[in-house]
């Protein structure tokens, strides 16, 4: 099981955010997110939004730190990318 997280460089709601993904399945992603205490509402189409103050928890839980471009590449190659503005399959 490998989960990936990018640095908390995405601003929103007065905070900085990371994206947490799986390159295997959404089931794996949801299970990991639950283990680190990420609420279901943090899931957005193909990733979890993780606030900067929870970044270390995700890494300590086993998420691998990668850059944003690498994260997107892995998500796309796994066939799990669900861009905004496109209907879910």
Automatic annotation (TrEMBL):
InterPro entries: DUF4031. It comes from Streptomyces gulbargensis. This is DUF4031 domain-containing protein. Pfam families: DUF4031 (PF13223). Residues 4-77 form the DUF4031 domain.
